[in-house]
Amino acid sequence: MTQIALPLDVRGHGGTVRIVVGHGNRAALDALAEPERWPFSTAVLVGPERSGKSLLAGWFAQARLGDAMDDAHLIEEAALFHAWNRAQEGGRPLLLTARPGWRIALPDLASRLGGSLQLAIHQPEDTMMADLLGAHAEQRRLALGEGAAAYIVPRIERSHAAVEQVVEVIDRLSLERQVPVTMSVWRDAIEAVRGPEQGRLL
Description:
Elements: E1 3-6, E2 17-20, H1 26-32, E3 42-46, H2 53-62, E4 67-69, H3 77-90, E5 94-98, H4 107-114, E6 117-120, H5 126-139, H6 148-152, H7 160-177, H8 183-194, H9 196-199
Parallel strand pairs: 3-5, 3-6, 4-5
Antiparallel strand pairs: 1-2
Helix pairs in contact: 5-7, 7-8
């Protein structure tokens, strides 16, 4: 599993958070590691829900590669404009993360950010899905059991959010039933995530 380790606490579970690297985010990570090459010292990173944008922003800031503003689509555009100007004046790289389809109302800001480096995180491929499954289980100190990835990955939506959700449900069901994780727990968790109608097709 290719990962970048971050000493962060996730939802009270403690330990080390690991950013799983795969085809869906490798190009973005490579670009984040070289901020001196960014046009206008600024990059805008977009990606789907729960795809690790905030973790990458945290990694970027902790590595002291530059400043990071997470969820830029929720920040006042005047503040973003000031941050962009500071990056130009001081030469300190600025990373903004945002949801896909972010639309900027201020024409001048839209023009400036449009000329910045545009990065994207894409949906994970099978190998990355399996690695994400293992990483989320590791964060929860959860033993999924042998063959879990081979069974679960083809049966859930291909997304970061779906992987995180199914591991959360597996953990909850195992605790509620006070049983180790087995195929029956995997199956019930997948049904809970996909919905009863889809679950019956498993």
